[in-house]
Amino acid sequence: MRMSNEVQLNCGIKIPIIGFGTYSFHNDREKTELAVHMALKMGYRHFDTAKIYGSEPAVGKALTEAIRDGKIKREEVFVTSKLWGSDHHDPVSALKKTLERLGMEYLDMYLVHWPVKLKEWACYPVPKEDDFEQLDLETTWSGMEKCLDLGLCRGIGVSNFSSNKIQRLLDFASVPPAVNQVEMHPMWRQTRLREYCAEEKIHVSAYSPLGGPGNLWGSTAVVDSLILHSIALKHNATPAQVALKWGLSKRSSVIVKSFNQQRMEENMKALDLKLDAQDLLDIEKLEERKIMRGEVYVNETTSPYKSVQDLWDDDI
Question: Where is the NADP-dependent oxidoreductase domain (predicted)?
């Protein structure tokens, strides 16, 4: 990926603006490995994984093979993984296990996956009612900073954090988060959060930049939008490319997830698309609707979040 397709983070390192997501419901290791090899050939250099996705071993194996075969150097790829809720008590040990699964010596970015702490056994995506613990973000973040101090990662950040939660984190953080990875697309534009993060020099990275079609919780509303279809027709592009270019135009990086060769190539070509001022104004007219609402982290008894509004504060 060309250098112009990277942005500098507040920690001094550069992040490629198009990332390759590796979550898939079936988590087929062989398919994931093949997809990562294919993505490397197409120029993808940012690979996004997480403990809870189960894709770390496949991502690590494919990248290690490519490095061993001289196709890329380790410093030419950017690898992101995430701290799951059951590991908040010890981020250092959790990251060491992630590195073992990846077969790597360091991560480029380590994110707190959700502002949710779970009991140590809750290593599954949908927690049960008695799995929740009270989040002590100061202790969690201290562990994240230790990961950085030990050289286990080059940057630390958060995911699914509202403006208010980042503000509280900054009250005690010695090292501010470099990244906040959140749902963001033309139908969930995150205007308030983006403005706040820009003020604090925190990079916003967009997951589900197409609205998550193909995921159990996702929607085709974004790629089916008549406005995006109209803009795509005008530029001889696809609605997906328009959605991705919109995200890039907001100075965000986008994490795209498709293991389909044609769509992977199409997603990369969003870099070449140019949207004009009218296109951007038309996109602002789209009705907003958050797709990943995080209801599984909300309950009235054991979760610190009694409602979806509690989880997202004023950002929903």
Answer: 18-287
Q: Rounded to an integer, what distance in angstroms lies between the CA atom of residue 43 and that of residue 16?
A: 10
Cα 162 to Cα 234: distance, rounded to the nearest angstrom: 35
The model's pTM: 0.96
Is 196 designated active site?
no
Q: Are 2 and 29 in contact (CB under 8 A)?
A: no
Catalytic residue among 44, 53, 207, 297: 53
Q: Which amino acid is at 212?
A: G
Tokens of 226: 């008549």
Rounded to an integer, what distance in angstroms lies between the CA atom of residue 96 and that of residue 105?
9
Length of the chain: 316
pLDDT, tens digit, 9 for 90 and up, residues 27-81: 789 999 999 999 999 999 999 999 999 999 999 999 999 999 999 999 999 999 9
